Amino acid sequence: MKRAFGFLSIAGTVALLVAGSTAASAQTPPGGTADARAISGAKAYMQAKGLTSLKLNMMMPSIFTAGSTLEMTIFEKETGIGVNYFEVGILQVQAKAMSEAVAKSGSFDFWIGDPISLPDLVEAGLARPIDDLVVRGKADLDDIVPGFQEQAQYKGKTYGLVADGDNFILAIRKDLIEAPGERQKFKAKYGWEPGCPDTYEQWYQLAEFFTRDPKGTGVPELYGAMGYRARGWGWRWWLQQFYAKGGMPFDDGMKPLVAGKEGVEALRDYIALTKFMPKDILGWATPQAYPFYAGGNAFSIMTYPSIAIAAEHPDRSKVVGKNKYCLVPGYVVGGKLVRRAIQGYGNIFYVSNYAKHPEAAYWLSQYMTSKEVSARLVAGPNSVYDPYRKSHLTDPRVIKARTKEMVEIHLKNAQVMAPMILIQGAVEYNDALDLNVQEALLGKITAEDALKNTAAAWEKITNQIGRRQQIEGWKALKAAYPTKNVPD
After folding, report:
1. Which of 22, 140, 471, 475 has the fewest CB atoms in 10 Å of its CB?
2. 185 Ramachandran zone, left/alpha/beta (phi>0; psi -120 to 50)
3. Mean pLDDT, the chain, as a whole number?
4. How far apart, in Å, are the Cα atoms of 19 and each of 26, 252, 318, 472?
5. Domains in the chain, CATH or no CATH each
6. What is the DSSP letter of 182?
7. Model confidence over 281-316: pLDDT tens digits?
């Protein structure tokens, strides 16, 4: 399938740069691997600047700190380049970055951020294009599964190195299905063998059956499903269902399409499934959801692939070895099953245009996202970095931490992975959607009104930014949507 988030593919962009940048190519640091070249490049930078030690300033989402600092310490020992990082909540990264785009203070050299804010931060002048450094360092791009690194592109330029494969996966409790009598009872009620669901209707049936409230208290001992429903998060789960319905956010003229039949049906299903989730799910994100599932309190969860680190953790999980990892469910559209896995976040290492040491920041970014180091990060016991490389499929460290089944299914889901809305104004588009989805979830408005309100808000955002410009951005993004109905 075609995967191009800008006007040129990554390969095309790099090829053009290589063809016209003989001098840059000659400066490639020595080393047989991307991490070795990053260390060599960093050492050469320090020598050229006459430095023996250097501290880069980095903005770090707090959820990534524990999984990152060890590798950064190793890099500092090798090169003299360390990191002073300040932590922020993962949903505050874009606002902090936009403030720096206005201030131009150079308060941080680089940061970990999501792809949603990339178009706005490029247009605001903060994100530095790194194609020149990617060519010099020979970053490990060819090893990345299609669909991930492209999200670090905008208008034909590369602005970061992807570090995280965040397309959703479904985990279910195979031990509960295999408990005596359960399989027979389920089949007698629903007419199919319980296991990984093909459709959202089947997931609903699994959630209904395995929700257990034997005392009738209204607080089940076992919840049938989990999926994020909090403000700032839940809209991604609806968007994935909307895509599986065959929906697209806009037509070619940027007229919103979310309020049609596909959107309304997907939102009703999204709301209906919530009744099998814990009440506190309305305020939860990863730090709360993962321990709850790993504690054995739910039958299933649709979330980021790092759930496997929690669910298979030998010391912290009660469900080690009891999980089955599934392709994302879908809908039957036109007589054919359509599955879609949304890339629900996907962290990227970005370099600031106002960095005091942009090249040093790049070398550390290349080191952290190389084949070898990324495998260590993905396999780390405190990590929420997720697999995104072909080599992760066979790396024994990754397989041990996450299970072979999980890694294989996760990267199969990537074949039908659809992006979030990655055009200028994405933060505003998504917030309007999020607000209205949440209002419908709380029963304050109908599903129809929620999506009509979203469409009206989107029209205003498009007109404010400029329709012609947005049409061009959407045209480039649209080419990245998957064409396969189901993975191979």
Report:
1. 22
2. alpha
3. 93
4. 12, 34, 55, 27
5. 10-162+348-384 (3.40.190.10), 167-344+406-467+477-488 (3.40.190.10)
6. H
7. 999 999 999 999 999 999 999 999 999 999 999 999
